[in-house]
Design brief:
Blueprint lengths: L3 H22 L17 H12 L4 E5 L12 H9 L4 E5 L4
Parallel strand pairs: 1-2
Helix pairs in contact: 2-3
């Protein structure tokens, strides 16, 4: 059985590994600042706060399209984010095969 500390620790380790892999794959000429944040709450409100506090100019979101029928292509979280933040959002669709 997992406890909160174990889940948090494993999540942080997995996120750090993904960020490290992206840093290796991205050419240095882009000079990107990649980071992650692990937090609890609704994605819409948390992301809005993060964008405003950190002056983020682009949000990249993935979507599985597993929401209700009218949200099959993008997902309900993407729609909520698009309505609530003040910067461009790049949406990457991931479809099951």
């Amino acid at each position: 059985m997992y406890n909160h500390e174990t889940l948090e620790s494993e999540s942080i380790s997995n996120l750090q590994a993904q960020v490290d892999e992206l840093k290796k794959e991205m050419p240095q000429k882009f000079n990107l600042n990649l980071s992650y944040l692990l937090d609890a709450g609704t994605v819409t409100h948390k992301l809005k706060d993060i964008v405003n506090e950190n002056k983020i100019w682009l949000v990249v979101m993935g979507t599985k399209g597993e929401g209700a029928i009218n949200n099959l292509l993008m997902g309900s979280n993407v729609f909520k984010v698009l309505d609530n933040i003040n910067c461009p959002v790049l949406i990457i669709a991931v479809f099951k095969q």
